[in-house]
């Protein structure tokens, strides 16, 4: 990597634009970057780092995404920018970076933030022009990191050599050296290997513990199944020997369980035999007890039958008398029916005679029949009186109708007179409504003429208000378009001016050797002008011109739109006048409401006229009705007189026919009731005589039947007679006695029952207790046998499960042993790692050994062959080894720690270490050649001779075509190094002054 040019604007302490030509400074191999403290020497190196990586080292980056990099001395309109031109991997690149910038707004007050910008260009030697590659921050960062092969931290340690850091590196302990080397050589992958192995160890250990816990859980379940026959090993999950101990204990438990199962089988066989014997004895005892109880019950039943023998004989006699009385039953039934019939006929005769007149109460059948005939004859003579009574009723109804008609006509005359009395008032009111509606119709026509002009004026006022706002908005847009057109024109003119300034380079680009120049005509072109950075060509000028023309067209469109809006506003204002819109809206609303009201009133004109016509027709109808009612009243007088004469004649006839009754119908009803009562009394008297004769005949037949059946009187026969329920009950009792007697005789005749009765009483309770004890012992033995069998099966299942767990655990334990050994070895805690060196430390130690070898080649020259740097992997105290660094003193032949070096010795030792580290890191980064290096401070601690030797070593770098920049404020270096870059600070910011080797 070689730096060519650096351009800085508003960066750090540099308020204006500054440039550094590294090609000029590097011509001598060594150049000096000097200036007073705080002038900005480090800021030059920061600018290089920022151009490459987009950030600066350490805390100088600050916050705000690089906004703090802006110079406080920069002008308000100047943007911070860093441009670096360099060659890396055979490619010449130009990187331009602009950090975020807080600038004033172009319009209005306040500030706005422009985003960071990045450009990457590559010089094409064929076309001799720069080619844009990318403007993406991420793509450019990845491209630069890939080309350099170094991170920002590595670049700052290798290219910008900070001597103070390496001096501390020489005095640091192993841990601090490890951190620095880890950042430089990126040994994170080895640390990740350590972490991965440690994590694998924890994972495999957890899996082993988990497998051991599962195995131990199986062992606990086997112990619960086996009880005291199994003892668990006192080992924790994951401990060695756990699997073997569990398998041994399981084997012992299985053997014990099988022995217990054999004992339980023998016990179960014995208890089954004893239980069968006890069941047979219990069955025999139960049978004996049953027979003995059967015999005893039969003896008790026989005794009870003997006690009921008299009652049985009485029942038999009662049944015999009942059978004899059944022959008398028809006569008894006939006599009872005759008696019932006679009693009913006598009661009916008594009831009928009670309702007869006193004179006929004791009359016979003949007298009653004659009286009934006379009442019927008188009833037939009342038909003429009934017709007269009906006609009298009709006459009363006719007179009532005439009265109703008279009252109705009176009502009609009175209602007509009342209505006609208010006719003039009603007619005046209806006529007033018609007149009001006609006036409202006329008013509505007048208002209709005023509505449209008022509405048009209101619409114009509203359009006037809206166009006022549109005019203001159009005016603002026209003003903005004019400003943009002015800016576009200014930009076009600026580009045009820039192109005119660089027109020589544009013309020179078309020159050809031997062809005359278009300006001077010369055919030789010894020094054609070259395009500078930011050159404006014809295309850029034409684009700016096109942008200006487009902006000017938009300005013209905006002005035309403004004119159109203003014309519309003037027309609306002329239509609406100066009256406010609210007042016009109120007036239009009032006019509309008045129009609506008058229209509503006018709409009732037809209805009012119709109502007036209906009222006039109703007046004519009422006058006619009044006259007709008077005519009908006069005609009813003659009809009423005729009805009165006919009514008097009919009333005289009915008085004679009614007699003492209220009416003819009442007299006819009396006669009908009298005839019916007489007829009923005659019939009931005749029926009573007939039933009395039939009862007498039935008594004679009953007495004869009772005598023939053997009874003294009919009453004795009736008492002996049984009804159906009593007969069935008595027969049931007789049959039950017979059945019980036969059953008792059969039981007493059984041989086995009699034999059982002669034997001693059966002890059923003792036999049941013996059988229950035998059954309980059998259940206990069966349960014990089942428990033993389940224990054996469970132990077999759990043993198989434990065996499977042991087989699964074996490869896990083997893997854990292997991983744990590797993790301990990589972590430096294994006994096999004698120096207790971690894997990352081992890799860093190898890198440090390379760095020490590369540094020794330069340290020998700087120290005149006295000092040599060597790597040491000895342990320091209780720490780990691997990152020790010693210096060998050739004058004394002793090896000592680098912390014992003096200040000057520390400087050139750290310088040699830095140069050696740069070589190793460069090789580590893929062999990218570093042609430009910077060394920061430390030269003030050297004497003249040592300083000459150090400068000789640095000057020897030129043999490899390298250039070394020394950052120092030592005055003696300004005399020794001719190529210089001076940083001069001032009130308006620092500036750079460059002086070449000449």
Number of strands: 17
Q: Shape, please?
A: flat
Largest sheet geometry: 6 strands, antiparallel
In the sheet with the most strands, the strands line up as 2-1-4-5-8-9
Average pLDDT across residues?
Answer: 76
What is the helix tally? 26
Helical percent range?
55-70%
What structural class should be given to the helix and strand makeup?
Answer: alpha+beta
Radius of gyration: 73 Å
The first-to-last residue Cα distance is 25 Å
Strand content: 5-15%
Low-confidence stretches: none
Description:
With 998 residues, this protein is α+β, with helices and mostly antiparallel strands. The protein is 68% helix and 10% strand. The chain has 26 helices and 17 strands. A six-stranded antiparallel beta sheet has the order 2-1-4-5-8-9. A six-stranded mixed beta sheet has the order 10-14-15-3-16-17, with helices on both faces. Strands 11-12-13 form a three-stranded antiparallel beta sheet. A hairpin with a 2-residue loop joins strand 4 (81-88) and strand 5 (91-98). Helix 5 crosses helix 24 (903-924) and helix 8 (242-307) crosses helix 21. The longest helix is centred in the middle third of the chain and has 79 residues, at 423-501. It is flat and about 190 Å long. The mean pLDDT is 76.
């Amino acid at each position: 990597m070689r730096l060519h040019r650096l351009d800085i604007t508003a960066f750090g302490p540099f308020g204006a634009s500054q440039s550094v030509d590294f090609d000029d400074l590097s011509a001598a191999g060594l150049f000096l970057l000097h200036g007073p403290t705080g002038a900005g020497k480090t800021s030059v190196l920061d600018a290089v780092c920022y151009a490459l990586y987009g950030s600066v080292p350490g805390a100088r980056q600050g916050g705000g995404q690089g906004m703090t990099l802006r110079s406080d001395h920069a002008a308000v309109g100047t943007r911070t920018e860093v441009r670096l031109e360099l060659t890396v991997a055979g490619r010449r690149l130009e990187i331009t970076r602009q950090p975020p910038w807080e600038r004033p707004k172009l319009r209005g007050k306040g500030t706005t933030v422009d985003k960071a910008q990045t450009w990457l260009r590559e010089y094409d030697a064929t076309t001799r022009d720069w080619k844009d590659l990318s403007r993406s921050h991420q793509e450019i960062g990845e491209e630069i990191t890939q080309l350099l092969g170094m991170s920002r931290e590595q670049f700052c340690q290798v290219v910008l050599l900070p001597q103070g850091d390496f001096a501390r590196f020489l005095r640091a302990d192993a841990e601090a050296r490890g951190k620095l080397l880890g950042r430089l050589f990126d040994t994170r992958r080895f640390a990740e290997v350590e972490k991965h192995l440690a994590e694998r160890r924890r994972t495999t250990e957890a899996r082993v513990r988990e497998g051991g816990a599962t195995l131990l859980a199986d062992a606990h379940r086997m112990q619960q199944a086996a009880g005291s026959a199994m003892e668990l090993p006192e080992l924790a999950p994951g401990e060695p020997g756990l699997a073997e101990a569990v398998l041994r204990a399981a084997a012992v438990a299985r053997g014990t369980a099988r022995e217990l199962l054999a004992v339980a089988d023998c016990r179960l066989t014995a208890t089954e035999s004893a239980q069968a014997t006890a069941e047979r004895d219990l069955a025999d005892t139960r049978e004996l007890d049953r027979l003995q109880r059967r015999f005893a019950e039969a003896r008790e039943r026989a005794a009870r039958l003997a006690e009921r023998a008299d009652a049985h004989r009485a029942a038999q006699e009662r049944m015999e008398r009942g059978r004899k009385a059944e022959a008398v039953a028809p006569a008894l039934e006939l006599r009872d029916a005759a008696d019932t019939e006679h009693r009913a006929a006598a009661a009916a005769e008594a009831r009928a005679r009670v309702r007869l007149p006193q004179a006929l109460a004791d009359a016979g059948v003949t007298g009653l029949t004659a009286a009934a005939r006379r009442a019927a004859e008188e009833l037939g003579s009342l038909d003429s009186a009934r017709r007269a009574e009906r006609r009298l009723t009709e006459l009363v109804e006719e007179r009532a109708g005439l009265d109703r008609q008279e009252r109705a006509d009176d009502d009609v005359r009175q209602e007509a007179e009342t209505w006609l009395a208010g006719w003039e008032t009603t007619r005046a009111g209806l006529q007033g409504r018609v007149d009001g509606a006609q006036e409202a119709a006329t008013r509505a026509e007048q208002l209709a003429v005023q509505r449209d002009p008022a509405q048009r004026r209101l619409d114009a006022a509203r359009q006037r208000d809206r166009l006022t706002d549109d005019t203001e908005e159009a005016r603002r847009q026209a003003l903005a378009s004019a400003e943009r057109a002015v800016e576009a024109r200014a930009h076009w003119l600026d580009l045009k001016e820039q192109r005119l300034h660089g027109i020589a380079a544009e013309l020179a680009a078309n020159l050809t050797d031997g062809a005359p120049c278009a300006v001077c005509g010369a055919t030789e072109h010894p020094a054609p002008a070259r395009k500078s950075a930011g050159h404006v060509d014809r295309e850029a000028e034409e684009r700016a011109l096109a942008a200006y023309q487009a902006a000017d067209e938009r300005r013209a469109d905006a002005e035309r739109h403004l004119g159109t809006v203003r014309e519309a506003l003037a027309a609306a204002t002329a239509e609406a006048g100066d009256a406010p819109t609210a007042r016009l809206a109120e007036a239009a609303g009032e006019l509309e409401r008045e129009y609506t009201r008058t229209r509503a009133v006018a709409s009732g004109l037809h209805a009012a006229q119709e109502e007036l016509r209906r009222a006039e027709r109703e007046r004519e109808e009422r006058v006619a009705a009044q006259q007709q009612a008077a005519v009908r009243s006069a005609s009813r007088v003659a009809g009423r007189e005729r009805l009165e004469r006919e009514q008097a004649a009919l009333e005289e006839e009915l008085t004679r026919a009614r007699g003492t009754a209220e009416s003819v119908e009442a007299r006819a009803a009396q006669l009908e009731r009298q005839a019916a009562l007489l007829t009923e009394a005659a019939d009931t008297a005749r029926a009573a005589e007939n039933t009395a004769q039939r009862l007498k005949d039935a008594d004679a037949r009953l007495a004869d039947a009772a005598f023939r059946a053997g009874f003294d009187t009919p009453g004795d026969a009736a008492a002996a007679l049984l009804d159906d329920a009593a007969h069935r009950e008595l027969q049931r009792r007789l049959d039950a006695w017979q059945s019980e007697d036969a059953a008792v005789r059969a039981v007493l005749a059984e041989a086995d029952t009699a034999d059982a009765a002669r034997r001693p009483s059966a002890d059923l309770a003792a036999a049941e207790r013996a059988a229950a004890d035998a059954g309980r012992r059998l259940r206990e033995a069966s349960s014990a046998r089942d428990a033993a069998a389940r224990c054996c099966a469970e132990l077999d299942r759990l043993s198989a499960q434990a065996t499977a767990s042991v087989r699964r655990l074996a490869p896990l334990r083997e893997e854990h042993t292997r991983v744990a050994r590797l993790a301990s070895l990589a972590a430096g805690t294994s006994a096999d790692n004698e120096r207790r060196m971690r894997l990352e430390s081992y890799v860093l130690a190898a890198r440090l050994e390379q760095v020490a070898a590369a540094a020794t080649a330069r340290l020998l020259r700087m120290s005149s062959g006295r000092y040599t740097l060597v790597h040491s992997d000895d342990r320091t105290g209780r720490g780990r080894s691997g990152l020790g660094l010693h210096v060998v003193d050739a004058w004394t032949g002793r090896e000592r720690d680098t912390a014992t070096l003096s200040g000057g010795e520390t400087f050139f030792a750290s310088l040699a270490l830095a140069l050696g580290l740069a070589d190793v890191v460069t090789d580590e980064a893929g062999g990218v050649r570093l042609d430009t290096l910077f060394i920061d401070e430390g030269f003030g601690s050297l004497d003249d001779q040592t300083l000459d030797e150090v400068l000789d070593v640095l000057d020897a770098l030129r043999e490899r075509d390298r250039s070394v920049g020394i950052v120092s404020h030592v005055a003696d270096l300004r005399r020794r190094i001719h190529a210089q870059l001076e940083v001069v600070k001032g009130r308006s910011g620092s500036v750079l002054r460059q002086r070449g080797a000449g």
